[in-house]
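Sample intake sheet
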Amino acid sequence: MHQELVADLHLHTRWSDGTLGLSETVRRARLAGFACVAITDHDTIAPQLSAPYQRLEGVEVITGVEVKADILGHRGEILGYFVEPDAPELRKLLDRISDDRVERMKEMISLVNLRLGLHLEYESVAQRTEGSVGRPHLAAALVEAEAAATKEEAFQRFLAQGAPCYAPLPRPEFAQVVEAIHSAGGVAALAHPAFLPLENWLADLSRLKDAGMEGMEVYYPYRTGRAPLYASAAELAALAEELDLIPTGGSDDHGPDSVNEGLGIIHVPYEVVDRLAGAASSVT
């Protein structure tokens, strides 16, 4: 029934580090031919997303979230799909991460001012987002201050891990994030796993599945220029099938004039949406 329909299950809006609002993002996805999208902002959920699933701008919209986590000792992220936005345990976790983000951003702004001779203020950076403040907002401020020509240059020279103005963000443990997603009635999936330097993929993914993970991103614009790749999409697809993990995915689009614009380059079969919905219906 849904064979001809496609989805993008990894999109960001201005509620984290995207460049468009929720309605604009969904409308843009509809014009690109998508029947379903998941809004997966970083560590936050747009207030317009009032239920795990709804229709906006003629598109099926899944309420999702992308949460930073420590994954077997590595910096990674977990996607939650079909989550109840106001679920207490998830909200408590996101509020704590939000507080950590504010303190981390203030630390990075202090480093920028100290090492680049600028006079940026936290408020001027935070006003660039409607929700979760992050490095892309500081990158935009650096471009505006003419400290970098582009956001990409700002990241590479100053804000990337190991760069002179970088500060780490505390990350909750994988199991804690999965538990919070499940408490909200959602389904947990490993975001862009090819970027994780896992040593034994089958064993490590099995451990994550045993901890409650139901899926992982297979359909994704894996490009060697962004970060080292430790597995191919074909290898991930085979692992997902062997472990009976839902092979989810999406473009990770952040909107026009962003550090990651790619809406339309990934088309996830609608059957993946059906599998995620089925998994969500069985979450207790």
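Comment: Residues 84 and 184 are 5 Å apart (CA to CA). Residues 6-86+171-281 form a domain with the TIM Barrel fold (CATH 3.20.20.140).
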